[in-house]
Here is the input.
Amino acid sequence: MPNKQWDDDQIESMLREFPKIKDERPKEEVYMRLNEKKPVKTKTKRWLPLLVAALAFITVGVLIASIISQNGMDSASDSSGSESAKDEAATSDTSRLNDQASPEAESSNDANSIESFGTEESAASAGIQAVYEEDLAGNTLFTMGLTENAFVIPVSFLIPDAQIARDFSQENPTSVDLYNRYAGQLDEQAYGFEEYHPMLGRLSANGRIAEHMLPEDHQYDLASASIEVYTRTLKETFKDMDEIVVADEQGNRAEFSQVGILEPVKPAPEKHAFYSYTTAGGDTYSVPDYGMDYESAPEALLAMKNSPNDFLENPILQELEFEVLEKEESVAVTFSEPLDLNGFDEQAVRQMIENVSLTAKSFGKPVEFSGMEQTEWQEFNLQEPLPVPVAPNQLQWPLN
Amino acid sequence: MNDSVFHRLYDEYHQDVFQFLIYLVKNRHLSEDLMHEVYIRVFKAYDRFEGKSSEKTWLFSIAKNVAIDHFRKTAVRQKHSMDYFDWETQQLVSSEKIPEEVSLLNEDKILLYKTLDLCTGDQKMVIIMRFFQDLSIAETAEVLGWTEGKVKTTQHRAIKSLREKLSSMEGGEAHAE
Here is the structure.
């Protein structure tokens, strides 16, 4: 068959007939993204959180070693003491550990704030709240684990369904789809976190099994604390996956220094206590103490009275005393003395309520309070079990 | 950022510049990201804009630079396949698909658009500016920092190159008679 004859005039007139293509986003969306973005993106220092993780691990190791050697004699001589005396000793050890750790922690905070912020203000709005079921109407939940000081802080974004419809051809994109689409846009430093996302390598999913294929020179295994940050981040970011398989470039299971072949990471819910964590930028988040798993809700809730370290704070107002009773349908928290919520900073009250709710949630139950003078506080009806948060720490969307 | 400047630039040029980007890189999301980068660079340099060229050609020249930087980065990443996790490259790969608006055109036009990719970058750029964006020879010259003569020559060569490539393709499978 002979070729069609193309001539210059015909090509030119066809080129003139190409359609107009419009940006379908509303002007406000373009403006908002722009308005919140730092004008100049600082150079990514992907090794920094890994190094912080490594140093944090070493520092704690050295401190523990020195405390053990300091107190070894004391403990031995005290061995005839009662259980409660031992407990006290343990508590005082912890506080001494905290005391010694704190100057370093502070200076690391200072350094970090200079590093991350410069003259900028934190992008997170005052008062970070959890996401509840009713917030999901018309929105898609996108969770991520962000990092600072070798801690992983779970955060949530609510993406309007209209944007999801525009950005994805399929309905209900998975966390991996969401991550691949949006993680690159996230400016963590603007929120006061360290640069960690998007993670190196390539993420894909087959059903509910995700695969993270890592480049050879990744440094997620720089130290055991770096590995912990990495696996925690995977768990908090890909919560809808049954497991995340970590692979090398040849497609084999990745081998991490110190631990060998990395087992698939499973984001299944764990039974943790939640605490208040304040970033260098001054925003307070609800963060689980990943280091401890508890058998029961009362055990976890009572553990909240004691900060496990300098960074995770007891979120209970004025460290008030309370009792916990686990019921069939809920967990009851009763304050020993009448508690007037109006006497406290609103954000502190919310932090307490939400951290308690999040802790109870990891045991699959809502929390109900008694011993409070108010019958309701903001959106919460305190006379019945509180709504269970879907996810902690909502940050504003669009990403900046 | 000066709000009133944003609103004025948006109202006057946003859709034109966005269209320029999407015809270049094909992918809508990527164009949104590049558009964002264009604004960032515009506001960074706005105080230094001296009015030697028109605001319109100044914006297009920034958009051109943003797009070229993107292509350069992608090329570097493709050469080093074990480089950073790169969702932009993934998008670019998937954006082999032509924009939806183009896919609705007749086969000849789709073929013509695809054939643009076989031209040199300069030729593709000139075709998009001159025909899709309707920029004059003088405006195109200003955006690219060329003489008008070079724009005319490049445009002429681009059309010739398109004709030759299209004519050499198998008529039956390539386009409807």
In short: Residues 83-117 of chain A form the longest helix (35 residues). Residues 274-395 of chain A form one domain.
